[in-house]
Amino acid sequence: MKNLTDSFVFWVTGHPPGVSGLIPIFSNKSNKSNVVLGVLIFFGKGVLSDLLDNRKQRILSTIRNSEELCGGAVEQLEKARARLRKVEREAEEFRVNGYSEIEQEKMNLINAAYQNLEQLENYKNETIHFEQQRAINQVQQRVFQQALQGALGTLNNCLNGELHLRTIGANIGILGAMKEITD
């Protein structure tokens, strides 16, 4: 490296290192700046190129990573949107089915209420009919009892002992004839 530096000093000054003679190339600042700039470009070109290449690779890597992340985020967003659409469809189906189920349940309750009313009406009519039959039977029994009592009273008044015995004998004869027929 020392030889390289000595060569540079010789090239710039025109004198070997350690000799103090300046050539007019360094007489103004502009030329000095050009020389320094040339030296920087000559020696720094590789370093600067490496730094820029490294920076370029890091930027490209960051861009690739960002694009991958963006792609993943877009994919997740589409999946989330698809799930949202599915959930919205299911919610709409539940809402529609819920309304139809409510209507069906309402109709079932109305029908059950009508059936209960019909049964109650039938029970009421049956009860009325039963009570009417019972009342008719009671009236018939009373009429029969009164008629029987009246007939017995009339018979007792009209019949004397001898007529009474003849009637009983005739009835016994009729019952005996009926018994022979059935045997």
Automatic annotation (TrEMBL):
InterPro entries cross-referenced by the UniProt entry: ATP_synth_b/b'su_bac/chlpt
A Gene Ontology cellular-component term: proton-transporting ATP synthase complex
Xref: Pfam families: ATP-synt_B (PF00430)
Record membrane topology: Single-pass membrane protein
Compartment list: Membrane; Plastid, Chloroplast thylakoid membrane
Residue ranges the record marks as coiled coil: 70-97
Alphabetically ordered keywords of this record: ATP synthesis, CF(0), Chloroplast, Coiled coil, Hydrogen ion transport, Ion transport, Membrane, Plastid, Thylakoid, Transmembrane, Transmembrane helix, Transport
UniProt-recorded Gene Ontology molecular function terms: proton-transporting ATP synthase activity, rotational mechanism
Superkingdom of source: Eukaryota
Role summary: Component of the F(0) channel, it forms part of the peripheral stalk, linking F(1) to F(0). F(1)F(0) ATP synthase produces ATP from ADP in the presence of a proton or sodium gradient. F-type ATPases consist of two structural domains, F(1) containing the extramembraneous catalytic core and F(0) containing the membrane proton channel, linked together by a central stalk and a peripheral stalk. During catalysis, ATP synthesis in the catalytic domain of F(1) is coupled via a rotary mechanism of the central stalk subunits to proton translocation.
Self-association and partners: F-type ATPases have 2 components, F(1) - the catalytic core - and F(0) - the membrane proton channel. F(1) has five subunits: alpha(3), beta(3), gamma(1), delta(1), epsilon(1). F(0) has four main subunits: a(1), b(1), b'(1) and c(10-14). The alpha and beta chains form an alternating ring which encloses part of the gamma chain. F(1) is attached to F(0) by a central stalk formed by the gamma and epsilon chains, while a peripheral stalk is formed by the delta, b and b' chains.
Family: Belongs to the ATPase B chain family.
Record's miscellaneous remark: In plastids the F-type ATPase is also known as CF(1)CF(0).
Name of the protein in question: ATP synthase subunit b, chloroplastic
Species this protein is from: Nymphaea jamesoniana
Gene for this chain: atpF
